[in-house]
Every structure is written in structure tokens, then in C-alpha cells.
Amino acid sequence: MMREGAVTNEVYEYRRGVCEGVEGLNPPCPFNKGKENGEHYCDKCGCGERKFALLYIDGEPPGNTERLHMPDPQCPMYAMRRMPGSGSLKSVGGRIKQLKKLLVAAKEEVVSKGVTEKNTNEYLAEIEGASNGNT
Ligand code: SF4
User: Fold this and answer.
1) Residue 40: helix, strand or coil by DSSP?
2) Centre of ligand 1 from the C-alpha of residue 47, in Å
3) Cα 112 to chain center, whole Å?
4) In the chain, is it the N or the C terminus that has fewer CB atoms within a 10 Å radius of its CB?
5) Hey, where are the domains in the chain?
6) CB of 31 closer than 6 A to ligand 1?
7) pLDDT in tens, 36-69
8) Whose CA is nearest to atom 8 of ligand 1?
9) Which long-range contacts (CB under 8 A, 24 or more apart) does 77-84 make?
10) Distance between CA atoms of 60 and 54, rounded to whole angstroms?
11) pTM
């Protein structure tokens, strides 16, 4: 997303409708896992409940989450395909803010997992396995 920018708002809204459901059109995706705090994650992709995997938050503007703005949101049910970025990150808070959010999310995750210099390679292998669908 940093290179291509976020997808357009129309694409975002369409994707959100696929996950969330649209009254009279399609039901919510059965893999849409809503939490008590209003956060929604995909329960099928193996990304877990990481900030960058967050689909959307009930009652919050789209710019507070990233995944459905990414050119390739990695829907495991192939319900949404890759779309080109719009060249802008405005919809998700601008390039610097976006980069900062990604770095903060990555740092929080690394710290929460107890990653040290000694076990970095194990952690990287775990992430690689998850992104290859091996978890
Ligand atoms: S499987 Fe696709 S449509 Fe369903 S919640 Fe996950 S990302 Fe959304």
C-alpha cells in the first residue's frame, strides 16, 4: 500500500459490504469475527487480531483501519480481488501517519511476543509460515 496508495473509497465501501453484509443484498461473511469493542477481524485468513489485519471498527470512520484499503486485502474466500491503489494514502491518514501507524503496530506486536535478539529468527519464521497459510 505504501507504494501504490490506498484503493478508492468506492472500492473500500464495496469490500466492507462484503465482510459486513448489506441489507437486502448479501449477508455478513460467516468469517467476519466481531469483538465486543466493535473491532472486526477476518477469522479465516490466519492473520490473527493484529492492527494491520483489522477489517473495520463499528461506528468509526474508515481511515482508522488499513486492511480493506490495501490493493490486495488477501481475502481467503476470494470474495474481493486485487485492485490498483489510487496513488493516495489520504483516506487512511496520509503517508507519514500511515507509516507511523504501521511501525507502532509492528513494534507493539514484537514487544508483546517477547521477541529478543536471540529468538528473532524463530519469530520471523512464524510470521512467514502464517503468511504462507501454514498455521
Ligand atoms: S473471508 Fe473475506 S469477506 Fe470474509 S471476513 Fe475474511 S476478508 Fe472479509
Assistant:
1) strand
2) 12
3) 19
4) C
5) 9-131
6) yes
7) 999 999 998 888 888 878 999 999 888 888 899 9
8) 19
9) 77/29, 77/31, 77/44, 79/18, 79/29, 80/14, 80/15, 80/18, 83/7, 83/11, 84/4, 84/7
10) 12
11) 0.72
